[in-house]
Design goal:
Length: 608
């Protein structure tokens, strides 16, 4: 088993990609809402419910947490204004960071668009146990952004991280993961109809599912407010494999389609997506005010086939984009590879070694003494070969390196071992290491980056896509950062975090940003320049010469970063600040304004 590369802070020429590392070390930040002042009149809250009073989790285990607060003040709450309502965590709580959080210190914003005085606001987010065993008491505080903490808006949550356990809770607290239910005289249901008894999906496909429940309680079901009825996945079942981007949240696909009086049928319709292959049988339950509704459940077998139907790649443009070579990892063992289409194994001289059928596994190995390669397929062995290439002319071919394990920390059941383009197993004499290299078009590479979360603002995603494209193109132009390894960039935070095809599936909004900005790069004096970026500043970015060697670079000078004022510097500090840029996007700035703020005197140019 290969070890996933450690993410460390870069020094010298190694530019910290920042955002992914920020998730790991987020606990260093202060606990405060941005720009918060003393308590502001009109803002008060009363906690109505929370899904757990305490938690016992295994290391790395993730669970969905929900909370509800009544607006007891006189000001209407919003989830989109400059004073949007969100929950913050303290430094201990940040050790339970999950990539689905709104920011690295804000687990989630209020779900409703507006909550008037007297109404209830709901919050939903994931918590992931740290790897370190022990007891953690985390505090969550309700805030009006840039304005105030909200009195009464506090949750204290004890968390015990211990081996060999599953999620548990304090039984005194209502939870969607146990039998705690609304009583029949208030909310109750009986299932009457569903569109299918089971769902079969090809990879990449979608299907709609509808289920109808009769309201046999005494309270009407509503699409929002205190009587909101929604359908959610029960317990702590992971939903990444079949969750569609149209869902209300991580675990809850939809609310009831319309107001449903007692005796009427309420319908719940939502899409299921074939993200990752496998067999799943989630139980969907009706919920109100963080309680399950008696009789409101349906188990749905979902089968996602192993044959992945991937998105169609656009034809090669008249002016072809650059090809990038990415060092995925180094290895000392044999590698096994298969694909969703037929492909070829060729040697360094382009001689055909094997034609590999769909789904067949080819094994490639390196003799570290003789410095020769071998390949085997179906019992047939070819040896004494030069370095090996695994190629297909079709960018819709997805190679799967079945011998490679790269599990995202937030869900270790996933394995990021799938890649478009071509693969190459090649020895580096200068480094005395054997590398697996992924060669593919630059735009396809960018879609496989994991430098953001999917729910970030579109203009921030576009700015980040252009900065990442420019960083890659600049390094390609100078011959790469790793010529001794026979590749341009590596796949870790030393350069840019690249996780391949699965990242395309998980980050469709960032993929769209790449497509929206296709071929656009940052230039200074009509030359493509290096564009480092990092997690967050302490109120200003750093000039190149403050951090690295030699003369300064005129487009990389210190710039004010007001969205990070009062925070701790995280990262090298040169170039685009991820948190600051995100704040600019939320404030209405375009991607061009963001880039020209952090990179002084630059222009944007479409090179293909």
């Amino acid at each position: 088993m290969k070890k996933t590369k450690n993410k460390i802070i870069n020094r010298g020429q190694k530019f910290l990609s920042g955002f992914m590392l920020a998730a790991v070390l987020a606990f260093i930040f202060n606990f405060m809402p941005h720009g918060a002042e003393a308590a502001v009149a009109g803002y008060t809250a009363q906690k109505i419910s929370q899904s757990y009073g305490s938690l016992t989790l295994a290391p790395g285990k993730a669970i969905t947490f929900e909370a509800a607060f009544k607006n007891t003040g006189t000001v209407t709450w919003s989830n989109s204004s400059s004073n949007y309502i969100s929950l913050y965590v303290d430094s201990t709580g940040r050790q339970l960071y999950h990539p689905y959080w709104y920011t690295i210190e804000q687990p989630g914003k209020m779900i409703e668009t507006k909550v008037a005085p007297g109404s209830t606001a709901h919050f939903r987010f994931a918590l992931r146990a740290p790897e370190l065993l022990g007891f953690y008491t985390i505090k969550l505080k309700l805030a009006a952004e840039n304005l105030t903490w909200i009195p009464g808006g506090v949750i204290d949550l004890p968390v015990n991280v211990t081996n060999g356990t599953t999620a548990t809770q304090d039984p005194a607290v209502n939870s969607p993961t146990t039998a705690a239910t609304n009583t029949a005289e208030n909310f109750a249901a009986t299932k009457l109809i569903q569109s299918s008894q089971a769902v079969a999906l090809a990879g990449g496909g979608k299907v709609n599912f509808t289920v109808g429940f009769k309201n046999i309680g005494v309270t009407s079901w509503e699409t929002g407010g205190a009587n909101l009825v929604k359908i959610c996945v029960a317990g702590t079942t992971a939903t990444e494999s079949f969750r569609d981007t149209s869902w209300l949240g991580t675990s809850c696909p939809a609310a009831v389609s319309g107001a449903t009086l007692t005796g009427q049928i309420g319908y719940f319709s939502f899409s299921l997506a074939g993200n990752l292959g496998g067999d799943f049988t989630p139980t969907f339950v009706l919920m109100n005010n963080d309680k399950t509704i008696t009789g409101g459940e349906v188990a749905l077998p979902i089968k996602i086939s192993g044959t992945v139907e991937v998105p169609i790649i656009a034809p090669t443009p008249a002016v072809p984009e650059t090809i990038v070579r990415v060092g995925l990892y180094n290895t000392t063992t044999a590698e096994t590879i298969r694909a969703n289409t037929a492909f070829e194994v060729r040697d360094a001289e382009n001689n055909l070694v094997f034609s590999v059928p769909v789904g067949a596994i080819v094994t490639a190995a390196f003799n570290f003494t003789a410095k020769t390669y071998s390949a085997s397929l179906g019992g047939e062995i070819r040896d004494n070969l030069s370095y090996l290439k695994f190629v297909s002319p079709d960018l819709n071919t997805i190679f799967e390196i079945t011998s490679f394990e790269s599990h995202p920390a937030w869900n270790t059941s996933l394995n990021d071992n799938k890649f478009r383009g071509s693969l190459e197993l090649r020895w580096s004499e200068d480094r005395a290491k054997l590398y697996m290299i992924n060669e593919l078009p630059l735009e396809t590479y960018l879609k496989g980056l994991a430098e953001s979360s999917n729910n970030n603002p579109a203009e921030y995603h576009r700015a980040l896509a252009i900065a990442a494209r420019t960083f890659a193109q600049y390094n390609i132009n100078i011959g790469g950062k790793h010529p001794a390894g026979n590749f341009h960039l590596n796949a870790s935070s030393y350069d840019q975090v690249y996780r391949g095809y699965n990242s395309e599936i998980r980050l469709p909004n960032f993929v769209k940003a790449v497509e929206d900005t296709r071929g656009i790069v940052v230039i200074y004096n009509n030359e493509i320049v290096v564009t480092p970026y990092f997690a967050q500043s302490d109120g200003r970015t750093r000039a190149w010469e403050e951090v690295w060697w030699g003369a300064g670079k005129p487009w990389l000078v210190s710039r004010p970063d007001p969205n990070c004022a009062g925070m701790n510097l995280f990262g090298h500090g040169v170039g685009l600040s991820a948190r600051g840029a995100r704040g600019m996007a939320l404030g209405g700035s375009t991607y061009e304004q963001i880039l020209k703020h952090y990179y002084t005197g630059v222009e944007l140019k479409k090179i293909y």
